[in-house]
Amino acid sequence: MSLDQLVGQTTTLSVARKAAFGYFLTDGNEDVLLHINQANQELEEGDQVEVFLYVDSEGRTSASTTIPEIAVGRYAWVKVTDSNPKIGVFLNIGLPKDILLGIDDLPTHKSVWPQTGDLVYITLKLSRNYLLYAKLATDPIIESISVKATREHFNKNVQGHIYRTAKVGSWIYTIEGFKGFIHESQRQQEPRLGQKVEGRIIDIKEDGSINVSLLARKEESQDQDAERIYEYLVSRNGAMPFSDKSMPEEIQERFGLSKGAFKRALGKLMKDGKVYQEGSWTYVKKD
């Protein structure tokens, strides 16, 4: 097997000769450069050294004594470093050159592409011309590293990263190792691939996977809705032409709330002594 075919993997090579800028390593048939910046120790001719083979910015097969957590056929969570809308996103695996996760492996809508700092679970793949690319983990791969949730986890808060996204919902892998699904009705907006999100477990399936909601719990949601309504009131000098008698369509258009949620939030504001109603108007209560 040629050294080009070993790109994306770890191998042991011998130091053939030293140079001012590094070491030339050999497998007995081919040489490859270990640049001095990629060597973590002084080496002598004849030394055996374990290296990771990658393709440098000039397109040449090169070696590094930095062994990434990831390799061809081995998966890991890696961080997004940059994005190019024409070709895809770039990932840092610990080498001088970032790895491309190509546009064909990313969601159709660029609004849910990973952003800098997001984490994606990938492996490496080698193209026909021996270039390294990233490949997203599939459901079976996520399943193989997941653990089963039990009934005691029901209604618990969880955090995790989105590993797959679609219009119908998003798939999450949590810090605890649970594999989960977030239905589109359980999120206010579609999270990005690789985004870290926090939600709560609303169902545990027979196979131990979970359903997650990213929506606030009712009491939290009520507080947030009340705060939004109050801020709107203040922005209108303490008066608004909305009350618990307003039409559902008007409430939805102005606040994005159902009439039931609006009434609960308004009721909280009145109970807290912050507002009062007169006719079809609501006013901020003055001290």
TrEMBL record:
<dbReference type="InterPro" id="IPR012340">
    <property type="entry name" value="NA-bd_OB-fold"/>
</dbReference>
<dbReference type="Pfam" id="PF17783">
    <property type="entry name" value="WHD_CvfB"/>
</dbReference>
<dbReference type="Pfam" id="PF21543">
    <property type="entry name" value="CvfB_2nd"/>
</dbReference>
<dbReference type="InterPro" id="IPR014464">
    <property type="entry name" value="CvfB_fam"/>
</dbReference>
<dbReference type="InterPro" id="IPR048588">
    <property type="entry name" value="CvfB_S1_2nd"/>
</dbReference>
<protein>
    <recommendedName>
        <fullName>S1 motif domain-containing protein</fullName>
    </recommendedName>
</protein>
<comment type="similarity">
    <text>Belongs to the CvfB family.</text>
</comment>
<dbReference type="GO" id="GO:0003676">
    <property type="term" value="F:nucleic acid binding"/>
</dbReference>
<dbReference type="InterPro" id="IPR048587">
    <property type="entry name" value="CvfB_S1_3rd"/>
</dbReference>
<dbReference type="InterPro" id="IPR036388">
    <property type="entry name" value="WH-like_DNA-bd_sf"/>
</dbReference>
<dbReference type="InterPro" id="IPR039566">
    <property type="entry name" value="CvfB_S1_st"/>
</dbReference>
<dbReference type="InterPro" id="IPR040764">
    <property type="entry name" value="CvfB_WH"/>
</dbReference>
<dbReference type="InterPro" id="IPR003029">
    <property type="entry name" value="S1_domain"/>
</dbReference>
<dbReference type="Pfam" id="PF13509">
    <property type="entry name" value="S1_2"/>
</dbReference>
<dbReference type="Pfam" id="PF21191">
    <property type="entry name" value="CvfB_1st"/>
</dbReference>
<feature type="domain" description="S1 motif">
    <location>
        <begin position="155"/>
        <end position="215"/>
    </location>
</feature>
